[in-house]
Amino acid sequence: MTASAADTNAERAVRRRQQDDRQPGPATFAVTLTVLAALLVVSATAGLAIGSVQVPPGQVWGIVTHALGADWTTPNWSAARETIVLDVRAPRVLLGAVAGAGLAVVGTALQALIRNPLAEPYLLGVSSGASLGAVVVIVFGVTWFGPTSLSVAAFAGALGALLLVYATARTGGRITSARLILSGVAIAAMLTAVLDLLLLTTDRGNEARAVLAWTLGGLGGVNWDTLWLPSAALLLGIGILMVQARNLNLLLAGEEAATTMGLDVARFRARMFVLLSLVTGILVAATGPIGFVGLMLPHIVRLVVGGDHRRVLPTAALGGAVFLIWADIAARVVAAPMEIPVGVLTALCGGPFFLWLMRRDARRNTDRGGA
Known about the structure:
Elements: H1 3-20, H2 26-49, H3 57-67, H4 79-113, H5 126-140, H6 149-169, H7 177-201, H8 205-214, H9 228-243, H10 245-252, H11 255-260, H12 265-287, H13 293-305, H14 309-333, H15 342-370
C-alpha cells in the first residue's frame, strides 16, 4: 500500500468515526454552552445560599458584588452572613467547580488516549496513587517542596499508578476493557492497602483520623490561600488539551490511522499521561479522591455535542463543575447537621452508571459479533 493510499484510508477512518458520533450543528453546541454557563451561575448562587444558615440569593449577590467593589446595593446583611458567604462557602463552591471541571476533562482525555469508554482516574487507580502520595507526605511530614509538597507527592503517585496500570493492561499491543478495569482495580487495591497500613501504624492519631475522612473525598476545609494551585492546574490542563484536541480525535480512529496521519502515538500518550497525572494529583491533594465524575460527564456530554473533543472538552468542564457543586450541596443538606463526604454521593451516582455502561458495551459487542 502506498503512502497516499494509507493517508486516504486513515482520513476515511477519521471521517467515519466522526459520522458515527453524529456531530450536531454549531447552533446546538452554542446553545449547550450557554445553558451550562447559566446553570453554573445558578449552581454557584445556590452553593453560596444553601447551608445551615440560609442566605437569600439577593443577599448573596449583594455580598459578592459589594466585596468586588461594586456598591450597587445598600448592605442589609450581618457581618456573620458576609463571613459565611465569602470566607466559608465561596472557596468551597469554587473548589467544587474547579475539581468537577478538572476531573471531567481528565476522564474525557483518558477515554480517548486509551480508547476505552470505561477509563476514569478513580477506576484506573490514578486517584489511589495520588492519595497514597499525599498520605505519605502527611504521615511522615515530608516538606521537601515546601507548601507544594502535598501536590508534588500526589502527582508522583498518580503518574506511577497510571503507568503501572497501562503497562499491566497492555498485552500484544492491545488493551481490552476487561483487562484495563481489572488492572486498575488490582493496582488500586494494592495502593489502598499500603495507605491503610500507613494509617494503622502511624502514631499520629489525630492526623490519621483526618486523613481517613479526607480519603472519602470532600470540599471542606479549603480557603482562599490554597485555591490558586488547583485553579492553575485546571487552566493548564484545559489549555493544553484544547490545543491537542485534533490529536485526541485522531486516536479515536485507532493507533494505525493516527500514526498514518502523522501522530507519534507513543510520545503523545506519554506527554498526555504526565499532564493528566499532574492535574489529577493536584486535584486529589485538594479534595481527596472523588470518583466517577470523569466517567459520567464525558458520556453524557457526547450524547449532546457529539464526539469532537473541541466541543466535548469545554462542555464536559462546565458540566463537571455544575455536577460537583450540586453534589456538595447535597452532601451538606441531606443528613444535616452531619455532612456526608461528597465522594460517597458521587459513587452512589457513578456506580449504577458504570454498570449500565458495561451492559451497554457488552450488548454492542454481542451485536457486532452477531453481525
